[in-house]
Amino acid sequence: MSDLGHESHSSHGDDEGSDKERISLAGAVAMGTGVMIGAGIFALTGQIAELAGPLFPLSFVVGAMVTALAAYSYIKVSNAWPSSGGIAMILQKAYGPGVVAASASLLMALSMVINESLVARTFATYALRPFGLEENALLLSILALALIVFAYFVNASGNRSVSGFSLVMSVIKVGGIAVFAVAAIWASGFFSGAFSEGTSLTSGEAFLASVAFSILAFKGFTTITNSGGDIVDPHRNVGRTIIISIGICVVTYLLVALAVGSSLSIGEIAAAKDYSLAAAARPALGEIGFYFTIVIALAATTSGVIASVFAVSRMLAMLTKMKMIPHSHFGMSGSIRSHMLIYTVVVAGALAVLFDLSRIAALGAFFYLVMDMLVHWGVYRSLRHEVGAKASVLLTALAADGVILTAFTLAKLRTDPIIVLYAATGIAFVFAAEWFFLSRREPEAGTDHETENQDTGLW
Fold it and tell me: Could you tell me which residue, 201 or 7, shows the higher pLDDT?
């Protein structure tokens, strides 16, 4: 795609009218933290503790370190070529317009859709917890679908609605989570609950496997990369937004991990892994704390789904524009972006109905880690000199992902081998489908950049 550089440049130099649709630094940080905190705290804390044992807060620290290494590749390339194509642009520049770039981009998009279903199902679990109905599969599915549909309507109203809503909700939830965490730690103390059980790990492999979930909790920073062309002054603000978002999240995650661990034993956390924060709030803070945590969880997961729907529909529209995935209008009017919004919520809704939280999270981790490794290798192989990236950092990030993916696979083969089969089948299907599509696509002499921009315009 020779147009990519032009697209990035023109995106940066839009007319003044388009600035009304641009996302500010604060709005971009809110969008990034909205995705991260929505999944990381409320859906994954219990699963991380179940694997890592009493030292589970350390898993978030290691996850943040690996994520910071990973972010290096994205920041370097995005600073050079900020684009609404985000990861798809990075992969295409690294591998060319072929099967690897298209397949890895689609894996990223699918991992984001999986994240939407994960967070939507978490929303439903917390919403039903006060009534003791969190095990009711039908109600869980209905509420999860309702949130995904709501996210569609917010996104359909435009970029400013997404940015503004995400900013307000992020302030509420980060502040609320901090209040909950500090109050719970104060009430319970540092040496009670899980932390009174000692500090031994179940095994090094189990701890590394838990880091896969921790990385998934931070992967919302890619939402920022995928929206680079929509951010004000992207050459400067994409990298700043990613760094600020990761910093906010690691502090938030540590506070919550300490609060949950001081209130509940590892066994209690594992038993309530789908709603561990609500379970921790009741013994530490009583009924008021319990309902306060429920409200914050609903705010966090709502903003997380909205931000994720925005980013993945943007990415899928760009993949269509880049001729990397097929597209059918199915008789619908409007732009490709509006169609992608519909396809995104349909797939996310289906996943929320078909899988439980643990399997949704595991599937997302497999897809994301494979894609992330392909990004690092591609930047190292083809782009590091052009973007000024250090080979040592890229190879360290690649090795870290490989170690964690191996440990996670081994852990799941022992506890839930079917999800490993699902993941391997899904990844193989994506590569095979992309090969089939791209091998039969007729080469084009050129593209009408103006027409494509009009078709995939913001709204």
Answer: 201
